[in-house]
């Protein structure tokens, strides 16, 4: 029906099953991290018609920050347990959710926006050092 917003065509569980690469926890993390990122970039929702779009690069950075807030030094370990070891993994999850109509994208958005945004070891481990007194 024209003008009526379309809801998701599949459940999140179906999308997870169809992609077959990551557990549902990873998809839920990306959804929560997207909300975190949008709020950080655009602030609290004021105008419901205003664009709240974020780029793939912005989302990757937001997901990095969100993971570090949630898990600190264990962030990279938790993500690796879910099979997320590169920023491209975030992109695969996002685009699976787009295909299932859980998320929307612009014509300019592509999976390439998530390619090599940062190195996981540097991005998650660089700020943490254990200092041992000699």
Provide an overview of this structure.
With 134 residues, this protein is an all-alpha fold. It has one domain. It is 51% helix and 0% strand. The chain has six helices and no strands. It is globular and about 60 Å long. Residues 1-5 have low confidence and may be disordered.
**What string gives the helices and strands in order?**
HHHHHH
Count of DSSP H/I helices: 6
Distance between the termini: 72 Å
What fraction, in percent, of the residue positions are helical? Answer: 40-55%
Structural class: mainly alpha
Number of domains: 1
The proportion of residues in beta strands is: under 5%
Q: Average pLDDT value?
A: 88
Residue windows where pLDDT falls under 50 for at least 5 positions = 1-5
Radius of gyration: 16 Å
**Describe the biggest sheet?**
none
DSSP summary, beta strand count = 0
Q: Please state the overall shape, judged from the principal axes of the Cα atoms.
A: globular
Task: Offer a few descriptive terms.
single chain; 134 residues; mainly alpha; 6 helices; disordered N terminus
Write a concise synopsis of the structure shown.
The chain is mainly alpha-helical and 134 residues long. It contains six helices and no strands.
In terms of topology, how is this protein built?
Blueprint: H1 12-19, H2 24-42, H3 56-71, H4 75-81, H5 87-99, H6 120-125
Helix pairs in contact: 2-3, 3-4
